[in-house]
Amino acid sequence: MKKYFLTTVSILGLILTSVLSTLAQENSASPEPDVKIPISVVSNESETSYGKLLESRLQQAVSKTGMSEYQSFNFVLYPKINILSQDLTASAPTLTVINLEMTLIVANGYRNKSIIFNSETFSLKGVGQSEERAMLEAIRSFRANDPRLQAFIIKSRETIVRYFAANCESIISEAQQMGNEALLAVGQNSDGSKATPAENQFAQAIGLSHNIRSANYSCYQASIEKINQILKKYDEFACLLYLGRAKNHWAARELKETVNYLNRIPPSQSCRADVDALLKQMDNYQETITNEKLLQEIRVLREREKAGKEMLDYVMAGQKYENESVRDARKQETIVNVLGPPVPAKN
Predict the structure, then answer these.
(1) Are residues 153 and 174 in the same domain?
(2) 66 and 145 both lie in a single domain
(3) What b/e readout covers 247-285, taking b as 16+ CB neighbours within 10 angstroms?
(4) Which of 15, 46, 160, 240 has its CA 20 to 30 A from that of 150?
C-alpha cells in the first residue's frame, strides 16, 4: 500500500511538473505588459464616404483593445465587402436596400508574403436613397464596441504573438535582410527615389524587432547580437540620411524640421561628433526660441543617453517624427501587398 501511495505521488508530481512547465512556456510567449503589437487599418474603399467611416470605426476598435497605433503596417486589419443583394422598394420615395457580407482579415502587411492570422464575417444591412447612402447606413450599424469585433481583434493579436513565438529566428533574419537592403539602397541614392522605400523597409525591420521583444522576450535576448546588428545598420542609415537633412534645415533656420530629423538619429556611434557639433551651433540660437516644447525637445536630445534606455527604445521613439509622406507611401505599398493594385474606374 505504501509502495502504491509513493508511486501515485510520484506520478502526480510528474504531472504537476509538466503542467507548470507548459504554463511557463506559454507565459514566455506572452507580450510584455507595456509593449503592444500594433495593428494598422487599411482599406481600398477609403475614397468613399462609407469607406472612410468604416476605416474610422475599425481604428476605434483597435484602439479600444489597447494596442499601439504606430503605423508600421507590419500587421494590418482590412475589410472585404461582398454585396449579397440590392433591391429597390416599391414605396415612394424609392429606396435602395442593400444586404452585404463584410469579412475582416488580420494579416501581415510587409513584402508580398501573405499570412492570414484571423478572419471574421459580419452581416450588415442598409437602406438609403442611393446605393452609396445605403452602404453608408449599413456601415453606421457596425459599432466599434461590438463584442464580436473586440473579441476578434484580441484573438488576432494572440495569434500573432504565437506566430512570433514559433518563428522568432526566421523573423529576425527577415528583419536583417530588410535593414541590409535599405542601407544599400540609401547609400546608393540618399536624396532620390530610393530614399522613401528604404525608410519604409527600415521602419518595418525595426517594427519586427520591436514585436519580437513583445511576443517572445527569451528569443529576443538569445538573438540580441543579431538585433544589435540591425540597430547598428539603422544607426548608419540614420546618419547617412537624416543628418544631412537636419543640416539643410538648420542652414535655413527651420528649427522644428531640424529637431525632427535629429530625433530620428539614435544616440549614435556613427555620427555622434556631427550631431553634437550641430547642437552646439544651435545653442546661441536658443535665446530667440519662444516655443517651450521645442526647447524641451532640444534639451532631451542632449540628455538622451543618460536615460539609460535600450537602443531599440530610442529608435522606436524617433518613429513618431516620421515624415507623413513616407508613412503614406508605406500605407499605399501595404494596400497593394494585401489587396492588390487599384482597379481602374469603369467608364
Answers:
(1) no
(2) yes
(3) bebbeeeebebbbbbbbbbbbbebbeebbeebbeebeee
(4) 46
How many domains is the chain partitioned into structurally?
2
Q: Are residues 118 and 210 in the same domain?
A: no
Residue 333: count other Cβ atoms within 10 Å of its Cβ.
Answer: 19
Q: Per the domain annotation, does 12 fall within a domain?
A: no
Domain that holds residue 246: 167-339
Report the alpha-carbon distance of residue 43 to residue 64 in Å, rounded.
19
For residue 94, being part of any structural domain is answered with: yes
What is the distance between the alpha carbons of residues 76 and 321, in angstroms, rounded to a whole number? 21
pTM for the predicted model, two decimal places: 0.75
pLDDT, tens digit, 9 for 90 and up, residues 76-106: 899 999 999 999 998 888 899 999 999 999 9
58 domain residue, yes or no: yes
Q: Domain for residue 96, yes or no?
A: yes
pLDDT tens digits, one per residue of 46-87? 788 999 999 999 999 998 876 655 567 778 899 999 999 999
Co-location of 141 and 224 in the same domain: no
Residue that the C-alpha cell 538648420 belongs to = 250
Q: Taking a C-beta distance cutoff of 8 angstroms, is the pair 143, 166 a contact? A: no
Q: Shortest CA distance to 212 belongs to which of 251, 172, 178, 181?
A: 172
Supply 188's cell numbers: 546608393
Q: How far are the Cα atoms of 43, 104, 142, 335 from residue 148, in angstroms, in the given order? A: 20, 11, 11, 25
Q: Which of 115, 140, 161 is the last residue of a domain?
A: 161
